[in-house]
Amino acid sequence: MSLSACSRIKGYFPDKEKDYQLTSEIPELQVPEDLSDNAIQHKQNVEINSPSFNQQKTKQSKPTKATKKPVIYVDLVEYSGGATRIRIEDTLERTWRTVGKALSRNSIEITNRSESESIYYVQYDADFKEFKDGSLWDEAMFIFGSDPANEKEFKIRLAENGSLTEIIVLDRNDSPLSKGPGLKLLNLLYKTIKDDLSNTN
Length: 201
Description:
Blueprint lengths: L1 H11 L5 H4 L15 H12 L2 H11 L12 E4 L7 E4 L3 H14 L3 E6 L4 E6 L11 H10 L6 E10 L2 E7 L9 H21 L1
Antiparallel strand pairs: 1-2, 2-6, 3-4, 4-5, 5-6
Helix pairs in contact: 5-7
């Protein structure tokens, strides 16, 4: 009888370990009141509804105002007794880069430059028309119509005048130009610089 009872007991326990067969049921775990689910949930609600939490949340949710860039003053000044010029309310160093960008955008060839003297040497054709991808006639006019001999050498000089920087177009003999191709070049630079600065700001 004892052998048969033992075999029956072992049949209920697959691992047949003695410690496992002789174990007793562990009593139910007693959770302290301050660690129960109700206590933890109540503590979270108190912290979320507390004034310090709401104040911190309000501070973080305030949107930051975007800072506006200052508008740069640009003007084309005509003198009755002097050369027409562009005036920019900016430093000489930044205006130098602005003029270089304007020349590049209009495909004006820069043959030389002297940053120490603040002079760009350029080749410019006042009658040149920008090529547009259109008919075969337009392509033929672009190839055969433009004459490199029409390009003339100009100097673009920058000079500081107080808090402003002035831009003047000169001929190859350093004479300021206020009419003809020189004035057309100055007007082209003025429009390009003004559009560029307005889009940047």
